[in-house]
TrEMBL record:
<dbReference type="GO" id="GO:0016020">
    <property type="term" value="C:membrane"/>
</dbReference>
<dbReference type="GO" id="GO:0016780">
    <property type="term" value="F:phosphotransferase activity, for other substituted phosphate groups"/>
</dbReference>
<dbReference type="InterPro" id="IPR017464">
    <property type="entry name" value="Sugar_tfrase_EpsB_2"/>
</dbReference>
<keyword id="KW-0812">Transmembrane</keyword>
<feature type="transmembrane region" description="Helical">
    <location>
        <begin position="282"/>
        <end position="306"/>
    </location>
</feature>
<dbReference type="Pfam" id="PF02397">
    <property type="entry name" value="Bac_transf"/>
</dbReference>
<feature type="transmembrane region" description="Helical">
    <location>
        <begin position="12"/>
        <end position="30"/>
    </location>
</feature>
<keyword id="KW-1133">Transmembrane helix</keyword>
<feature type="transmembrane region" description="Helical">
    <location>
        <begin position="50"/>
        <end position="71"/>
    </location>
</feature>
<feature type="transmembrane region" description="Helical">
    <location>
        <begin position="111"/>
        <end position="134"/>
    </location>
</feature>
<keyword id="KW-0808">Transferase</keyword>
<dbReference type="InterPro" id="IPR003362">
    <property type="entry name" value="Bact_transf"/>
</dbReference>
<dbReference type="InterPro" id="IPR017475">
    <property type="entry name" value="EPS_sugar_tfrase"/>
</dbReference>
<feature type="domain" description="Bacterial sugar transferase">
    <location>
        <begin position="280"/>
        <end position="463"/>
    </location>
</feature>
<keyword id="KW-0472">Membrane</keyword>
<feature type="transmembrane region" description="Helical">
    <location>
        <begin position="83"/>
        <end position="105"/>
    </location>
</feature>
<comment type="similarity">
    <text>Belongs to the bacterial sugar transferase family.</text>
</comment>
Length: 468
């Protein structure tokens, strides 16, 4: 895995992206060469003038493919996954729309319909070929990481299950588990590695050709924890990873049940510097202004439809908990009936909630109901990307029941966020735990790069009606 601005990125996915960018730029030059070749010579002698247009073309395609989830494919399914073909053509159509807008704003970048159609065709063939090669090579053993787990208890079993069931981006070959004194064995006895008398941990790792050791021991107190041997492993080039970091890397979550306070205190991340705060505020203003301008007609139509359906108010204002626990009133398009909480007691929103109106059901699926929160962003009460703001009534309950829940209030809440695009609707405390684990990952690793990824994933959620 690579780390870009504290966010974990698969080496395979990054390599695929890099190769496809080269293919797209190369396809542009090949298409241009074919189009301008008259049989003997080029009509346009300097194709290097097309470099900027080629980069714009590649950027539009990559952005569209990302928005439609084409870099989150399951490598175990490969080209057999029908969604690959179903999303390739729409992504090209979306890119065509983006390019049309770019050509309207910057006509100097326009390179002709003939070239465009030819380049699209060559690019499609190149991407299909590249992905066929990547999916085929993903089955090779040299792409696997040989991994060993220190511990045999529940935490080690959970880590091992995750490594063996992972089907995308990173493949593991589990060498086995190393038993620690006082732990109840929860893994298969045949998978426990036997250490010969006097054998060191580094010798055991070398014997089984393990290149990484994941420390999955919950109780690390006492003199039995092999800290010196782990240091020796690290000095000999074997990667030593904490279970919390392993979960963070593989699931893009921070698991609450395996978390130790010292890991949060001494680990990296949690950037709240002036530069990060300034960049995030600038990002909020720019993105919100663009979205407000683009969606103003949609908001007017939505307001009219809400009023026509039941004659009730268009907007719904509700108290929510923001940064540092301060409360504010969030603004949304009303998606429920006017007496949604007639009993006076707050209720969890749920999938297929009977309180949702017909118009409300649609605007919730495509997130139009969230658009009035742009005003909260302009006021500085919210950010465009961040943890979902919750009602104070539920916050008090969740803080009492879930460890570290209050950490999510260290930054501004957002219209969209990492948890919203990664997890579906939550209507229970268990759902809140799952969403908190994504929120903790965002709070720890938040950056402009991660904000852009969330924005792209939000487009996918809007298009396919998934997540929340």
């Amino acid at each position: 895995m690579l780390k870009i601005s504290n966010h974990y990125v698969s080496k395979v996915a990054f390599s695929l992206l890099f190769v496809e960018v080269l293919i797209l730029i190369g396809s542009f030059y090949v298409g241009s060469a074919i189009r301008f070749f008259d049989g003997e010579d080029f009509i346009a002698p300097k194709l290097e003038h097309f470099l900027l247009s080629a980069c714009v073309f590649a950027g539009a395609i990559v952005f569209s493919m990302s928005a439609l989830g084409m870099y989150q494919l399951n490598f175990a399914e490969g080209l057999r996954n029908p969604l690959f073909f179903l999303r390739l053509m729409p992504s090209f159509a979306m890119a065509f729309g983006i390019l049309t807008l770019v050509f309207y704003i910057a006509p100097d970048l326009y390179f002709g319909r003939g070239i465009l159609l030819l380049v699209f065709g060559i690019s499609a063939l190149g991407i299909l070929a590249a992905r066929a090669i990547f999916f085929t090579t993903s089955e090779f053993r040299f792409l696997e990481t040989r991994i060993m787990f220190l511990g045999v208890g529940p935490l080690a079993k959970e880590c091992g299950d995750m490594a063996t069931t992972a089907t995308s981006y990173h493949k593991y070959d589990v060498a086995g588990y190393v038993a620690m004194p006082g732990e109840e064995c929860r893994v298969a006895p045949t998978s426990v590695l036997q250490m010969e008398p006097g054998m060191s941990l580094v010798a055991l790792a070398r014997k089984y050709d393990a290149s990484e050791i994941v420390v999955a021991v919950q109780n690390r107190r006492g003199g039995t924890f092999p800290i010196r041997e782990l240091l020796e492993c690290k000095l000999f080039g074997i990667t030593v990873t904490d279970a919390a970091t392993f979960f963070e890397r593989e699931t893009y979550q921070i698991r609450v049940e395996s978390l130790q306070p010292s890991w949060l205190v001494f680990g990296g991340g949690f950037d709240q510097s002036f530069v990060r705060t300034f960049m995030k505020r600038a990002f909020d203003i720019v993105v919100s202004t663009i979205i407000l301008a683009l969606t103003a007609p949609i908001m007017l139509v939505t307001a009219a439809l809400i009023r026509l359906e039941d004659g009730g108010p268009v907007f719904y204002n509700q108290e929510r908990t923001g940064r540092a626990g301060r409360t504010f009133r969030v603004h949304k398009f009303r998606s429920m009936g006017t007496n949604a909480e007639k009993g006076g007691k707050p209720q969890w929103a749920a999938v297929n909630d009977p309180r949702v109106t017909r118009v409300g059901d649609f605007i919730r699926k495509v997130r139009i109901d969230e658009l009035p929160q742009l005003w909260n962003v302009f006021k500085g009460e919210m950010s465009f990307v961040g943890p979902r703001p919750e009602r104070p009534y539920f916050v008090e309950q969740l803080i009492a029941e879930i460890p570290y829940y209050n950490v999510r209030h260290s930054i501004k809440p957002g219209i969209t966020g990492w948890a919203q695009v990664r997890y579906g609707y939550g209507s229970t405390v268990e759902d809140s735990v799952q969403k908190l684990q994504y929120d903790l990952y965002y709070v720890k690793n938040n950056s402009l790069f991660l904000d852009i990824l969330v924005l792209i994933d939000t487009m996918k959620v809007v298009m396919f009606g998934s997540g929340r």
